[in-house]
Amino acid sequence: MTRNKHAAPARGRRAFCASVNAASLALINAGIPTRGVLVASSASMAWRGAEPQPLVDVGHVEEAAGGVCLTVAAMPTIGSIALLEMSHRLHMDYFDLVFSRAMQGCKDIQAILDAAVREHLAEGWTQKLDS
């Protein structure tokens, strides 16, 4: 995996992730070639008793609770990470768990975007054939 360092604001992680995902869709829609689809997701850690529970797509409630929030922007198909930001300290024993949940979120979002693009393209072709 290649890792590049970029700064991102610590506030508004959901808005940041949504903006990255929307910008990727806009680039695809415009026909601009890219190395891969950049998607973003966030993950956090909650505790259920003594067991850690990783969370994906962290919302305001989880952020306000003061727990750690890990934001990842990545191109999962080519194994590239564009951004990795953590809001608080996290013990290394739990980092892989939270990171893998954020990366799974990126893969899931990429699959959703891919399906939406394919559906959009299929609709465009059917409209051309009907004309």
Known CATH architecture:
2-Layer Sandwich
CATH topology: Ribosomal Protein S5, domain 2
Share in helix = 40-55%
Count the beta strands.
5
Give the low-pLDDT segments.
Answer: 1-10
CATH homologous superfamily grouping = GHMP Kinase, N-terminal domain
Strand-residue proportion:
15-25%
Domain unit count:
1
Q: Tell me the series of helices and strands, N- to C-terminal.
A: EHEEHEEH
Q: Would you kindly provide a written description of the structure presented here, covering whatever features stand out?
A:
With 131 residues, this protein is an alpha+beta fold. The chain has a single domain, classed as 2-Layer Sandwich (Ribosomal Protein S5, domain 2), CATH 3.30.230.70. The chain contains three helices and five strands. It has a five-stranded mixed beta sheet, with helices on both faces. A hairpin with a 4-residue loop joins β4 (69-75) and β5. The relative contact order is 0.19.
What order do the helices and strands come in, and which of them pair?
Blueprint: E1 2-3, H1 13-30, E2 39-48, E3 51-56, H2 60-64, E4 69-75, E5 80-86, H3 92-130
Parallel strand pairs: 1-5
Antiparallel strand pairs: 2-3, 2-4, 4-5
Key terms for this structure?
5 strands, alpha+beta, 131 residues, disordered N terminus, Ribosomal Protein S5, domain 2, 5-stranded mixed beta sheet, 24% strand
In brief:
With 131 residues, this protein is an alpha+beta fold. 47% of the residues lie in helices and 24% in strands.
